Amino acid sequence: MKTDDIRELERIAARCRQNVLRMVRANGSGHLGPAYSCIDIVTALYFHAMNIDPQNPKKEDRDIFILSAGHKGMAQYAVLAEAGFFDKSLLDTFGHFKSPLPGHPDMHKLPGIEASTGSLGHGMNIACGVALGKRQDGLGSRVFVIVGDGELAEGSNWEAAAIAAHYRLDNLVLFLDHNGLQISGKTKDVMSFEPIAKHFEGFGWAAREIDGNNMAEIVAAIDSVPFEKGKPSLIVANTIKGKGFSRAENQVGYHYWNPSAEEMALAEKELEDLLMGMRT
Amino acid sequence: MVKLVKGTIEDIELTRAYNQQLIALAEEDPRIVDVEADVGNCIFGPEFQKVFPDRYVNLGVCEQSLSSVSAGLSAVGLIPFCHAFAAFASRRMCDQNYISVAYAKNNVKIIASAPGISSGENGGTHHACEDIALVRPIPNIVIMDPADSTAMRWAVRKAAETFGVFYIRAERLNGYRVYEEDSEFELGKANVIRNGNDVTLIAEGSLILNNCLKAAEILGKKGISARVVDIFTIKPIDVDTIIRCARETGAIVTAENHSITGGLGSAVAEVLCDNCCVVPMKRIGIPNRFGEVGQPAELMEIMHMTDKDIAEAALTAIAEKRRNEK
Ligand SMILES: Cc1ncc(C[n+]2csc(CCOP(=O)(O)OP(=O)(O)O)c2C)c(N)n1
């Protein structure tokens, strides 16, 4: 399932954002800003980069995606649905009683989910374990993980940073969703880990910085991992929280979104217009 | 003595009551500091920050540090109130709470919001089904689950005035008023909310106390008089009241917004056992399973925590009592 055309990937990402709105509509609320921030990356991973088969989600030689920042789960649900891992009608159950799409992803409820996350600071270490294990079978699987910039404050991430470098896990790629916001404000005001790339390089990682909402840059970065043989790769993805709904962009108040019907209509309209413009 | 509110009056979120009281106490005592781990308005921390910007510490998303940093603040004479969601305040902070805070005899107040199943749609990762079980074995810790805003205000004041470690659960859902504002509580003293002779329903927390009161109504229609007790302090537990209720009513049902493993039900059973006062008893609470996505009302249904479940458990315990009497 490879898509090489950047424009086509952008169109898919817009449709995935529509899927996010569908979930928020079903539940009445959801983590809009966090999902929109990283959804271009998740789209590129599933539609361009990863070796996966929606019909055979557990195939041995697959690449593995772990969403450490589980509250961004709508981004992964949206992309998995778009890729055909499950029927889109399931999106309408988001957050509902016993739904396979809870607020935070559960690996035993939905095909394509590889880790149960939502308690921040677990994903990088799980990814290290998966990358270590997968290296043994020689099938060439790669492991991609998304961590939030606020999430970096969980010290377990820095334990994982050491583990990945120590074990030379060059089959591990970390996307840092660097949108500069967390729940209680700007990350630089709450708890800063700048310069992030330098810190990881200090541990023995190879790092690159990109615009994480620019499809061409995302694709180019993924296409050149590992950046250095024998080193885990960090992609510091400078993103905009809420990207794709102008009112939400860079607004801390849209971490968790509880829209009125009117605001939902606005968000839907913006995506329709965007997709319209992409047709020409 | 506590005074009970008459009629049904909606209450504010207990997280709100907590925050208001903390601000009021901080006016009186300059040693009080609010320590947070990036959950913003979930417990209205920014309101405290507005009034006392220098006494508000936001560490970012790092609950283990939250616990140990609070220990350090206590070590230099401050009174830290540190807050995290109950799931993280217990599971994530367990070793730090045990060693940095409690073992070192620090003066730290741990506030655990959204306990039990109350974080609903967030799903299993955010449910704190076992937080009481995790903190209860810690020596000398005080554990409270205030049932309304009056009880919460009293608990926060008591915690501020008493040197030691407190673990206070703070419900985020709106409940009902139970206590009049001029009620006098006592640490370690349970409150009888409704009199009765046939069975005692012992509850913890606002969500489930409300179910117990409704269960007592259901039982009343069947001619059974149920006593309802708000345990208020889970540790130290009120041994005298539990034993008295066991002797006077001869049957007990515990009900908690928590796993039946290691929480209130276990604590009450330990009391009955240790005092050679075993009576027929049933435990209502989250069975030994993981959380599930859904609204609290739906979750209480599948976890058998509703008023009907409590009434049914009471009937079973009473039947057993009557069989033993024969
Ligand atoms: C262990 C843990 N602590 C706290 C939370 C609550 N929480 C959810 S998202 C979030 C902020 C995360 O910020 P960031 O990583 O920057 O993600 P973004 O807001 O950019 O999506 C917090 C504190 C959690 N889910 N897990």
What structural keywords apply?
heterodimer, A: 280 residues, alpha/beta, Rossmann fold, five-stranded parallel sheet, two-stranded antiparallel sheet, 9 helices, 7 strands, 42% helix, B: 326 residues, 12 helices, binds thiamine diphosphate
What do these coordinates show?
The complex is a heterodimer of chains A (about 280) and B (about 325). Chain A is of the alpha/beta class and about 280 residues long. Helix content of chain A is about 40%, strand content about 10%. Chain A contains 9 helices and 7 strands. In chain A, the strands form 2 sheets. Chain A has a 5-stranded parallel beta sheet with strand order 1-2-3-7-6, sandwiched between helices. In chain A, strand 4 and strand 5 form a beta hairpin. The two termini of chain A are about 25 Å apart. Chain B has 2 domains: about 15-170, Thiamin diphosphate (ThDP)-binding fold, Pyr/PP domains (Rossmann fold, 3-Layer(aba) Sandwich), CATH 3.40.50; about 190-325, 3-Layer(aba) Sandwich (Rossmann fold), CATH 3.40.50. Chain B has 12 helices and 12 strands. In chain B, strand 5, helix 7 and strand 6 (about 165-170) form a beta-alpha-beta unit. The longest helix of chain B has 19 residues, at about 305-325. With about 325 residues, chain B is of the alpha/beta class. The model of chain B has no long low-confidence stretch (mean pLDDT about 95). Chain B has a 7-stranded mixed beta sheet with strand order 2-1-3-4-6-5-10, with helices on both faces. A 5-stranded mixed beta sheet of chain B has the order 7-9-8-11-12, sandwiched between helices. The interface of A and B includes residues 95, 104, 116, 118 and 153 of A. The complex binds thiamine diphosphate. Thiamine diphosphate sits at the interface of chains A and B.
Secondary-structure topology with pairs:
The complex is a heterodimer of chains A (280) and B (326).
Chain A (H helix, E strand, L loop, with lengths): L5 H22 L4 H18 L14 E4 L5 H11 L39 H15 L5 E6 L7 H11 L5 E7 L2 E2 L2 E2 H4 L5 H8 L2 E6 L3 H9 L9 E6 L22 H19 L1
Parallel strand pairs in A: 1-2, 2-3, 3-7, 6-7
Antiparallel strand pairs in A: 4-5
Helix pairs in contact in A: 1-2, 1-3, 1-9, 2-3, 2-8, 4-5
Chain B lengths: L13 H15 L3 E5 L8 H7 L4 E3 L4 H13 L3 E7 H7 L1 H10 L5 E5 L17 H5 L6 E3 L4 H13 L4 E5 L20 E4 L4 E6 L1 H16 L4 E5 L2 E3 L3 H11 L2 E8 L4 H11 L6 E6 L9 H7 L4 H19 L1
Parallel strand pairs in B: 1-2, 1-3, 3-4, 4-6, 5-6, 8-9, 8-11, 11-12
Antiparallel strand pairs in B: 5-10, 7-9
Helix pairs in contact in B: 1-2, 1-7, 3-5, 8-12
Bound molecules: thiamine diphosphate.
